[in-house]
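Hi L.,

You mentioned the student needs an example of a multi-chain input paired with its predicted structure. This one should do, with 494 residues in total across all chains.
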Amino acid sequence: MRFTSDTSSNGVREQLFVLDGASGEVPGVLWTPGDAAGPRPLILMGHGGGQHKKAPGVAVRAHRFVTGGGFAVAAVDVPGHGDRPTDEELNRLATANQARADAGEELAPLIAGFQALVSRRTVPEWRAALDALHALDHVGAGPVGYWGVSLGCGLGVPFVAAEPRVRAAVLGLGGAPASADVAARITAPVQFLLQWDDERVPRAQGLALFDAFASAEKTLHANPGKHGELPAFELDGNLRFFERHLR
Amino acid sequence: MRFTSDTSSNGVREQLFVLDGASGEVPGVLWTPGDAAGPRPLILMGHGGGQHKKAPGVAVRAHRFVTGGGFAVAAVDVPGHGDRPTDEELNRLATANQARADAGEELAPLIAGFQALVSRRTVPEWRAALDALHALDHVGAGPVGYWGVSLGCGLGVPFVAAEPRVRAAVLGLGGAPASADVAARITAPVQFLLQWDDERVPRAQGLALFDAFASAEKTLHANPGKHGELPAFELDGNLRFFERHLR
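Structure written out for the whole complex:
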């Protein structure tokens, strides 16, 4: 793990870093309280499709988790996203999927196949990121939370299923074809965000994914609105959920 | 409104009262912070079937709303419940419904008919209770919240639909046959609690009732478990919801 920048603003310290991965360098960001010393729970966040580790939907929530809960929060770029090079294989698949969707094919299974392919790279990358972050003095090897919706859910489900250090996960905006089999291996508490009028994930598939988690504690939060219209007040509920399970 | 007792314990003042209603006296309870002076938002709570105004499921939550949010909280006995006399008409109907259910008839429509009948009495009684409570110095005529699940949802839906003073409602453990038409007249923010394995309310009917609310802001909170197994952590979410809308 190599740090490339270290800045602070509004009580939040932001450190950019690079990790060596099997598919090349993995750029990441770590946010901690400005005065952080000693161990604290870590929340890893997965960004959405076409976004990156510092996209507003990630950064705004990360700042809240840091300032509101004293957590450490980290995110890394998914292959083909952010500061990572264009990935020809993923590009070809995305283009082919778009053509199949334009020709009338059902979108959800195409998304599912794409995310399954990407997750074969991100699961080991994210586990390696945990290893490196846990070795830092101001993070430490404490309990881990995961936050990810949409692509962050499609990649998050296999990550949470594979990673016993994750003790609580906020997931959402994903559907069963992508993840139901893998979701059935998850036993950590889950808070699942579903948009009632999601134009990308059919309602029944979102409900089926929630149904699939093996977690004894799991809560579905459903709100009216489209895929990109998660209500701001859910962030407060996310924070309370992480505080309850990671503290 | 006639007060019959006034006690305090652990920072919560409890006043028992009686209101005159069209179907006889309506016994009620008002909880406020021990040192309450001046107006504050009021939360009216509806109890469950076979329960009463001070049943643990009501009292525990009421105390939290008072001590955690500084709210005034009130509940009154439903006809045939608590300190109210046995109601022959309701008893006959309940007995007849039980016989029909035992004979294999679907339970949900029977519950729906029963709750619709009872609500013709409770809606005016609860509106009269608001009038009387709003005239008290330590309550005042501020915004009103409603909390009720199961029978408290079946009776709460027509109450919230009829009462413009209600600015936020926690409802749940109810289904569409009982309330969908009336729910479509509700525009206040709703937090709706659904038990994923409810043995009394089929899942699809609970989801259909959530779907029916006309509220621009409504959130479904679904958790694993049976009808009587609402998780304790939802109370925290109820309190945050009321704080957001009534303060």
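You could point out the following to them. The interface with chain B takes residues 196, 207, 210-211, 216-224, 231, 233, 236-237, 240, 244 of chain A (CB under 8 Å). The CA atoms of residues 90 and 117 of chain A lie 9 Å apart.

Best wishes,
N.
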